[in-house]
Amino acid sequence: MNDIEHPVYEIDKRQVRRSFEQAVESYDQAAVLQKEVNDRLIERLDYIRMQPEVIIDIGTGTGFGLSALAGKYPESEIIGLDLSEGMLKKAHASISDKSSDVDASKIKMICADAEELPLKENSCDLIFSNLTLQWCNDLNNTFKEFSRVLKPGGLLLFTSFGPDTLIELRSSWSAVDDYQHVSGFIDMHHVGDALLNAGLADPVMDTENFTLTYPDAYKLMKDLKAVGARNAVYGRNHSLTGKQHLKAMIEEYEKYRCDGVLPATYEVVYGHAWAPDSGNQNESVNVPFNT
Ligand SMILES: C[S@@+](CC[C@H](N)C(=O)[O-])C[C@H]1O[C@@H](n2cnc3c(N)ncnc32)[C@H](O)[C@@H]1O
Asked: Would you say the pTM of this structure is higher than 0.90?
């Protein structure tokens, strides 16, 4: 189906919301990479001296970031923001759980789009976002929104996916048909440019590649669905993918088999930048980055 209103690579937010709503119950068990990257992003805060009053976790999902941030900054007011109401309910249930040592009264949930934050300007000290920005259509505007709500001297710390992510799957599909089966991911240099365009200062970017392995390509696709990572671009094939096409893609993917398993590459882009402060007082020390 052609969509005359939307470019083929544009992300259909209704589809994103639907996919994550359907993944609420399966997410925690399947999100091994997301949890690991969240932990690594949280660790980076050890190198930054700050006592944020207000923190927002954008694309909070089931709340991996929320509970880690609440543990690290027990005095802070924390907001979990997500496009999916189901994810927010799950996050709320997990932090309100009796066994959780998080003070749930300090955490609020907002159902909204990262590209249009329902927050006042100069209202947040720290914006944290793990593996969510790849679902935004316009990073320039998204970062302008972040810049608007950050207080002067506030910090944005995030991860997203880079262009090598799922390169094997993308290439296997491209041998079969011309549909866009895997979202396009933005290069870290362009992400850095978008930070500067938004007026954010001292951006620092780096990337880290992870390789996950699967017994077969079906299991990879099952896991992607379980974490809500379904194809949501307008240029996706809107009818059911035929069995023959799927079979052909699975066969193509077999060329990557090594030591009995199939690899899937994930290029994680890490970044941080500061809202300008006249005296730029941020007390960052050297964060050990990957090359
Ligand atoms: C891959 S999950 C990451 C969740 C969490 N940060 C973690 O580390 O587990 C992405 C989350 O972002 C949400 N999301 C996607 N696009 C969004 C948008 N434009 N605005 C707000 N949330 C969004 C999804 O609903 C989902 O919960």
From this structure: yes
Structure confidence at residue 241 as a pLDDT band (50, 70, 90): low
Q: 61 C-alpha to center of ligand 1: Å?
A: 5
Every domain of the chain and the residues it spans:
13-162+184-209+267-280
Q: Is the CB of 154 under 6 A from ligand 1?
A: no
HEC secondary structure over 107-153:
EEEEECCCCCCCCCCCCEEEEEECCCHHHCCCHHHHHHHHHHHEEEE
Beta-carbon contacts of residue 66 (< 8 Å; ≥ 6 apart): 57, 60, 78, 80, 91, 95, 102, 107
The CATH number of 13-162+184-209+267-280 is 3.40.50.150
Ligand 1 neighbour 114 (Cβ under 6 A): yes
pLDDT at 3 over 80: no
Q: What is the pLDDT of residues 167-195, one digit of tens each?
A: 999 999 998 887 777 878 899 999 999 99
Candidate from 15, 17, 20 with most ligand 1 atoms within 8 A of CB, to mutate: 20
